[in-house]
Amino acid sequence: MPGGYSDAAQMTKQRKRVLILGSTGSIGRSALSVISSLPGEFELVGLAAGRQSKTLAGQVREHAVPQVAIDCERAEADLAQNLPAGTRLHRGPDALIELVRASEPELVLSAIVGAAGLPATLEAVRLGVDVALANKEALVVAGAILMPLARRTGSRLIPVDSEHSAIFQALHAGRREDVRKIYLTASGGPFREWPVDRIEHATLDEALQHPTWSMGPKVTIDSATMMNKSLEVIEARWLFDLEPEQIEVLIHPESIVHSMVEFADGSVIAQLGTPDMRTPIQYAMTWPRRLPCRAAPLNWREIRQLNFEAPDPVRFPALALGFETAQRGGSCGAVFNAANEAAVEAFRRGEIRFGEISRLIARAVADHETIPTPTLEQLLECDAWARREVRECTPS
Ligand code: MG
């Protein structure tokens, strides 16, 4: 957990050295627009992306970024051809890790989607660098390793996920030991009111229509299954050192209350705002300061009502699986996450029905024997095993 308010960069007005991992995705692009909107605040020391070499090269040119890496061997040559002269391109399988080391950032925005974002995030934490964490999968897979490591090195993990950013802000209202529970809010996704058999056969286009948030395809599909909320339960469990029983999920279709903390006296502190990812992204980058943001403020005269309800366990079986995984701890999160990534890929390729996603994850989690205190190697083995399990059950 990040500690006090002493922040050298804030006192001396030096620009904060920022490295963005995952700059071509939804979060990364928003982060670049935050940086452009606050001239004099940040120095962009490096960018990395998963595959999109052309977009990445364009960003390097536009923002005059000195160092860059791409997490895809085939895209590397293409990127090299499109970079402006003098740009340092890190190559090879450890390119992202080398970029983390060589660019000497003060803050790493970890926004690569999925388990692929884990090694570079781990390296930043190992170096004691602060991490604005958008890659929830890193904590889901390796929370058992990341959190103790961060405590040892002094690296502060600042959440970017809107719900965790809300909890992080609300926690400032009281003492840590006086927290009774937290409420993670969820929009409920596009299928909140659909009959179960219609959800079973939902198409890719339907799963990609999120009612309130504009996000990348993986997290949007995760919102439709409510796997996203399950991943966030596990993320919260690690980030805020909570028991799973202290976490409750509430459907809140308006997506205005981003999450809440209930203290021992029954007081509930919430963080509210329009559903715009620029707000939590910017807060993670400027924390503990608050600066003007381009996201529209709430218009209280237009908000007629705020609704809350318990999620339906029959429509969304992934949610109970998430709590079971949080309870089991250890290596279980790695299996849970990898099975989901593999199942979502199979769904996006049209190989399985929407309803199969949750069933495939359930089967992998049920067949897994949890390792209570796994090594990183064991976690990566669990990850690979779960992907194989899912592949063996999918026609291709
Ligand atoms: Mg979220």
Describe this protein's structure.
It contains 17 helices and 11 strands. The protein is of the alpha/beta class. It folds into 2 domains: 2-159, NAD(P)-binding Rossmann-like Domain (Rossmann fold, 3-Layer(aba) Sandwich); 164-276 and 294-329, no CATH class. The strands form 2 sheets. It has a 7-stranded parallel beta sheet with strand order 4-3-2-1-5-6-7, with helices on both faces. A 4-stranded mixed beta sheet has the order 9-8-10-11, covered by helices on one side. Helix 15 (332-348) runs antiparallel to helix 16 and helix 15 (332-348) packs parallel to helix 17. The longest helix is centred in the middle third of the chain and has 18 residues, at 136-153. The N and C termini lie far apart (44 Å). The mean pLDDT is 94. Bound molecules: magnesium ion. Residues 161-163, 232 line the site of magnesium ion.
Q: Characterize the largest beta sheet: strand count, sense, and whether it forms a barrel.
A: 7 strands, parallel
Rg over C-alpha atoms, rounded to the nearest angstrom = 20 Å
CATH C-level class of the largest domain is Alpha Beta
- Spans of at least 5 consecutive residues with low confidence: none
Number of strands: 11
Basic shape? globular
β-strand percent reads: 5-15%
Give helix % range.
Answer: 40-55%
Given the helix and strand composition, which structural class is it? Answer: alpha/beta
The end-to-end distance, rounded to whole angstroms, is: 44 Å
Enumerate how many helices there are, as a single number. 17
**Strand line-up of the largest beta sheet:** 4-3-2-1-5-6-7
Please state the average pLDDT score. 94
What is the fold named in CATH at topology level of the largest domain?
A: Rossmann fold
H/E series, N to C? HEHEHEHEHEHEHEHEHHHHEEEHHHHH
Small molecules bound in the structure, each named once: magnesium ion
Considering the protein shown, what is the CATH homologous superfamily of the largest domain?
NAD(P)-binding Rossmann-like Domain
What CATH architecture of the largest domain would you give?
3-Layer(aba) Sandwich
Number of domains: 2
